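Q: Joint fold for the lines below.
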Amino acid sequence: MSDSAARPAFETQLGQSAARMEEVLQQALASDTALLSGAPERLLEAMRHGALGGGKRLRPFLVEESAALFGASAQAAAPVAAALECIHCYSLVHDDLPAMDDDDLRRGRPTVHRAFDEATAILAGDALLTLAFGLVAEASALPAEARLSLVQLLSREAGAAGMAGGQALDLAAETQTLSEAEIARMQAMKTGALLAFAAEAGPILAGAPEADRKVLRRYGEIIGLAFQLADDLLDETADAATLGKAVGKDQARGKKTLPALRGQDWTRGELSRLVAEAESLLAPYGERAETLRQTARFVAFRTR
Amino acid sequence: MSDSAARPAFETQLGQSAARMEEVLQQALASDTALLSGAPERLLEAMRHGALGGGKRLRPFLVEESAALFGASAQAAAPVAAALECIHCYSLVHDDLPAMDDDDLRRGRPTVHRAFDEATAILAGDALLTLAFGLVAEASALPAEARLSLVQLLSREAGAAGMAGGQALDLAAETQTLSEAEIARMQAMKTGALLAFAAEAGPILAGAPEADRKVLRRYGEIIGLAFQLADDLLDETADAATLGKAVGKDQARGKKTLPALRGQDWTRGELSRLVAEAESLLAPYGERAETLRQTARFVAFRTR
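A: Joint structure:
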């Protein structure tokens, strides 16, 4: 299952995609776009602080790669990838707020409410979320029906039944002890929903059949499960300098994670099992799906 | 310009529309919809607290009436009207937060962060905003192109270049003195953008020509200007029991309004001028636009 030889090349590929996404996001957050022209410069700066200059850009990469598997170009996928990243970043800006996780540091930099102020951070998050739907709707390289499907799915996966709902359940976990099943549900919503969207977006925007949508969606759910397990494991084993954010927070707050409940050996075994399931799902697509396979291994076995 | 005889009938019509919208919103916020099934019940309750049971529902009414002017039914317009109201309500939930206007009372009831908690209010607002775009995208009675145009326009008018941007400028006004031009720009964004969207949504969803979109948009901007002037005037002259919210807040915070700068007589004259402009804009549509004319008079001359 170890894949140390392939990792450097994969990480280069991921880094190149992230650099492209940075440019797409810079253009999407420029002062002269159809969606943003006339916006107050300070609010735009806060949005840029929250969305630019950091992160692995895993979600955009998944959108690009799931689109490529069905023949759609990175260029056609870019507005959807950028929209998803705007939503991911808005959620970080709001999660970091004093009333939520109260974090001062994100990717080694001050969080938006620390660099600006709390009200501006709320509004910058709101505006990033709002922008995302406009970016999908105006993606003129995509058929109208695909754009509408993507807006609907994104609304569901980012909203009360998806990421926002998962965050609400996570907050509830600070005052009550969740069962393993409840933890799994919370994480499937909080982390899994956007990753499932990322993987499913490819076949949707490429006009692939429903059966492919289902396979890619399940693949995205697996990525979500692996991502969260690896994240919780790193929260226990890594240090803040390596991660660029605070660690040991879950434990300090009494939040139970599956690695904390089941132990590190169980967690590593579960991660291997998830990678095997992802590889099995992707087998019918042959060599073309190699990057998605590597993505699963990267997410499960990453060290930062 | 006075229109006291027509008002009771108009207010009945507005009330009937509000009652219909309450039902549409109840259905949109039910636990078993495509967009929300599986959402945590407490978060849904907070969303309902923020969106149901109150308000004049002026924005949905404008969507319905501007759609009717071009032959579209209230049923076809309903999802767009509901989406717009979700966005209006999300903005109230976030504006009421301690880091923003810090209000305990809204429509005579506790604000969402008082009835629930601050984190839940942030997430409920986020989720209402997210839901709105899904509601427009899934409005299957409307042509795909109309839905996409509406998502794009709503993203612009609700985002950094519209309502959220106006709110950011309003916050800045607490620490710096705005010029009259800056106040006008802030209010055109904060209040005007969603009302302009409401009026322009009708011709868009009914597939009317671009020229009609422009007329209705200008009408919506006038409604926005009149709404804000009347609101600021009421903030100076009415009492909290009549309005169901705190009054005199702007003055207490040192925020300048146009009525405060120019006086009540100037304000009443300006309101009459705006109503006359709205009537002139709508003249080509004849009798069919009578409700929109009455709406302008209602907004300008309301007493609560």
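Q: Anything notable?
A: Residues 181 and 201 of chain B are 27 Å apart (CA to CA). The first helix of chain B runs from residue 7 to 28.
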